[in-house]
Structure formats: structure tokens, C-alpha cells
Write a structure and sequence with these properties.
Layout: E1 7-12, H1 18-30, H2 42-50, E2 54-67, H3 70-80, H4 89-98, E3 108-120
Antiparallel strand pairs: 1-3, 2-3
Length: about 120
């Protein structure tokens, strides 16, 4: 559906990243729905190139989940990811540490990131 010369942008978790391990490990464990997501990888770049896409770029996007407190972020992530098996605050903090979280006094910021692949469709 992309016109010739059009720009394709794919954004998702990067394979084997801390975020990918969090989703396919921690979220999978604590959600009765599980989580076994396919993430973007080098294979996606190769596949796009093999069908003629050009000007391929990979961008690693870094930002953080921000909340006024650990309790607020715990509740938000529990609801967002469907963590119905009820991970305790200590368990949640351990998972955040794997993402690079460091305790702060005034707020709760958990590092997060996505990958973006940008490519041009052949003309």
C-alpha cells in the first residue's frame, strides 16, 4: 500500500534489548495472558533490503516512563501490561533495575526504549 518512493517507518522493541527481555520475561511471567512478542531485529533490516528498500536507517529511541511515585508507576504498569498475577513492589523494582532504574526521591523514572527502522520503497 506504500507508493513507490514512499517512506516506511517501523517502530517496536528491539530484539534482545533490555525492554524486550522485560516484556518477554517479566511481563510474560506476571500476566496470565503472557507475552511472547516478536521484536524488530537485524533480520527485518535484511528482509527490507532484500525486497529492494533503500536508505535503511536504524534509530534507537530512548526515553523514560515518568510518574510522581513508585506506587503510581507500579499501578500504571500493572494496568498497562495486564500484570494480573500481582507482582509486589519489590519484584517490580527488581524488574525496573534490569531496565536501568535508579531510585529517586521526588519521582519515579524507568528507562525505556524502542527501535525505529526507516526505509524508502523502490521507485
Amino acid at each position: 500500500m506504500l507508493k513507490p518512493g514512499g517512506r516506511l517507518v517501523l517502530v517496536d522493541v528491539w530484539d534482545k534489548s533490555e525492554v524486550g527481555r522485560f516484556l518477554n520475561g517479566f511481563v510474560d511471567t506476571w500476566s496470565s495472558q503472557g507475552h511472547c512478542g516478536d521484536c524488530l531485529s537485524e533480520g527485518d533490516l535484511q528482509a527490507l533490503e532484500s525486497v529492494g528498500f533503500s536508505q535503511l536507517q536504524l534509530h534507537q529511541l530512548r526515553y523514560a516512563w515518568n510518574a510522581s511515585s513508585e506506587v503510581s508507576l507500579h499501578r500504571y504498569m500493572r494496568d498497562l501490561f495486564g500484570l494480573d498475577k500481582g507482582p509486589s513492589s519489590d519484584v517490580m523494582r527488581d524488574a525496573w533495575r534490569l531496565l536501568g532504574w535508579v531510585a529517586e526521591q521526588a519521582a519515579c523514572r524507568v528507562p525505556w526504549g524502542l527501535a525505529a527502522i526507516v526505509a524508502r520503497k523502490p521507485r
